[in-house]
């Protein structure tokens, strides 16, 4: 079932605008190139509790910030366009380089019941990949996809903390190289995209032995993934979304072209939030509608945003109550009810901004961790921490570089 909500339902707080965003990458995620230079590591200090850290890419390297103060605690030189993802173990991030996925130690960990904070290290450990692409953390596994070959690599996420070097991995091979993604389920099965250099068409399921047990080719341009409550997987398509809960279900968009390219999920909610584009000929990367995918009801709801409010794929996240958190071109954070799309609150944070000329160009980005929203402001070379409950700006980090991509390492 597909429904469309009117913009009037989003104006509960007057003239304040809404917004939405995306996830892993927008059109086709390009891998970064790089050479590494690690900063010295000061001695570790015991702290009262695990300390989250924020990783930011910039033209020339990766910064690591204390998540509470937003002070820089690490700066590592790397060449090329960089992407960064949390590895899922609370301590490491994975940085895309021309060699693959390079391991960045964010310098926060727990050992024997005590928490420690120390210096950051861009290690020499690399998960080799031809054109490193998506990183997906689900359950106790982290899965890496190499676009240049279609090779898929997974490892036990916790093993990254204890391995001497890289942890033991499991490998799969796609039918053909493509810009893809894969999710390893808790029973050891794998959901991976189908495609080749000409395009992408759907998803297949491999059991724990590697044998194919299901497939659907009803997802043209498949991009964006996530799992909701009950370990139900959702993939974005150019004409809706594809849902897998043991069998495939296609939820068709209300428009002939209705692309969801990035999906944001919560393991405590059956609803996935996605970006939405109904115009295949649109110029630029700004969008004005958001998709709400209720996997329990089998519905796809399209929520239009107020006039003049837009977003890109970097500006959507989920909050502590599973609400959608949106960073708008009006510079405000907007909290939306995940099921109705109604506006719950709005908090001004940064100056209004315009969309990028190219999707790789620095533009505002959003990540949420433990009730705090981290918002980059490239125009001001700054990053802000915002309390989602009150809208209070808890800290602002003034940088000597222009931030681009962002990830939060939980500690």
Kindly report the oligomeric state of this protein: single chain
Q: Mean of the pLDDT scores?
A: 89
Give the CA-based shape: globular
Task: Identify low-pLDDT runs.
Answer: 6-42
Helix content: under 10%
Q: How are strands sequenced across the largest beta sheet?
A: 1-28-27-26-25
Instruction: Please tell me how large the radius of gyration is.
Output: 20 Å
Number of E-type strands: 37
Cα end-to-end separation = 40 Å
Count, helices: 1
Q: Indicate the proportion of strand residues.
A: over 45%
Which class best fits the helix and strand makeup?
mainly beta
Give a short account of the largest sheet. Answer: 5 strands, mixed
Overview of this structure, please?
By secondary structure, this protein is an all-beta fold. 1% of the residues lie in helices and 46% in strands. The protein has 1 helix and 37 strands. It has a 5-stranded mixed beta sheet, with no helix packed on it. The relative contact order is 0.17. Residues 6-42 have low confidence and may be disordered.
Question: What is the compact description of this entry?
Answer:
This protein is an all-beta fold and 411 residues long. The chain contains one helix and 37 strands.
């Amino acid at each position: 079932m597909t429904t469309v909500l009117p913009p009037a339902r989003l104006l509960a707080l007057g003239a304040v605008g809404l917004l939405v965003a995306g996830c892993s990458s927008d059109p086709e995620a390009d891998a970064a190139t790089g050479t590494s230079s690690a900063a010295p590591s000061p001695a570790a200090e015991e702290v009262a509790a695990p300390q989250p850290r924020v990783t930011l890419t910039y033209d020339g390297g990766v910064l690591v910030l204390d998540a509470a103060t937003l002070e820089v605690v690490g700066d590592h030189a790397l060449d090329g366009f960089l992407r960064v993802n949390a590895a899922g173990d609370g301590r490491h991030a994975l940085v895309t380089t021309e060699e693959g996925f390079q391991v960045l130690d964010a310098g926060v960990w727990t050992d024997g019941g005590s928490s420690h904070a120390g210096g950051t290290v861009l290690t020499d450990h690399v998960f080799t990949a031809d054109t490193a692409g998506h990183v997906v953390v689900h359950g106790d596994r982290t899965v890496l996809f190499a676009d240049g070959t279609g090779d898929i690599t997974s490892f036990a996420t916790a093993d990254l903390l204890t391995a001497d070097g890289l942890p033991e991995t499991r490998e799969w091979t796609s039918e053909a190289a493509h810009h893809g993604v894969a999710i390893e389920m808790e029973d050891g099965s794998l959901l991976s995209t189908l495609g080749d250099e000409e395009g992408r068409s759907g998803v297949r399921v491999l059991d724990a032995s590697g044998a194919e047990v299901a497939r659907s080719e009803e997802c043209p341009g498949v991009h964006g993934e996530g799992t909701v409550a009950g370990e139900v997987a959702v993939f974005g398509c150019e004409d809706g979304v594809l849902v897998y809960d043991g069998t495939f279900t296609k939820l068709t968009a209300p428009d002939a072209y209705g692309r969801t390219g990035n999906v944001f999920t919560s393991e405590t909610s059956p609803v996935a939030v996605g970006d939405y584009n109904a115009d295949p000929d649109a110029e630029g990367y700004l969008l004005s509608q958001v998709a709400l995918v209720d996997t329990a009801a089998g519905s796809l709801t399209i929520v239009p945003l107020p006039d003049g409010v837009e977003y890109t794929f970097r500006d959507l996240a989920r909050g502590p109550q599973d609400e959608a958190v949106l960073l708008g071109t009006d510079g405000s954070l907007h909290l939306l009810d995940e099921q109705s799309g109604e506006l719950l609150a709005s908090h001004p944070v940064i100056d209004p901004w315009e969309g990028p000329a190219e999707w790789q160009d620095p533009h505002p980005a959003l990540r949420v961790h433990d009730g705090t929203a981290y918002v980059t402001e490239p125009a001001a070379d700054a990053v802000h921490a915002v309390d989602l409950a009150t809208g209070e700006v808890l800290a602002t980090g003034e940088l000597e570089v222009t931030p681009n991509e962002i990830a939060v390492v939980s500690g």
